[in-house]
Amino acid sequence: GFLAGIFGIGGGAIMVPLQMIFLSEKIKIAIVTSLGVVLLNSIAACFAHAQAGYILYLEGIILGIGGSLGVQVTTRFLPKLPDQLVRITFYIFLLLMAIYFLIRACS
C-alpha cells in the first residue's frame, strides 16, 4: 500500500507480483485480489485528495468510464485464458512500462 501510494501505481505493477512471490498465488487469483484491494485504496485516496482539491474531475470521469468498460470485457475473458498467456502478457506489460519510465527519466 505504501509503495502504491508513493508511486501512484497499484494492483498490476506492485501487488500482483508480490502476491505471486510471497503468497504463491496463481496469476489470475492475484489479479482479481489486487483489483479488490485497488478498489478500497482508490476510494480512500479519492476522498483524501478531493478534500485537498487535487482531483481533475473531468479527466477522472473519462478514465473511470474507460476503466469500467474495460473491466466488463476482461472479467468475461480472463477466466478463459490460459495462465501461461496471462503471465507472459503481464511480464511484457511490466517490461514495457519499465522501459517507458527509464526513457522518461533519462530525457
From TrEMBL:
Membrane topology: Multi-pass membrane protein
One CC-aspect GO term: plasma membrane
Keyword terms: Cell membrane, Membrane, Transmembrane, Transmembrane helix
Localisation: Cell membrane; Membrane
Entry-linked Pfam families: TauE
Family under the similarity heading: Belongs to the 4-toluene sulfonate uptake permease (TSUP) (TC 2.A.102) family.
Protein name (database record): Probable membrane transporter protein
Species assigned in the record: Microcystis aeruginosa BLCC-F158
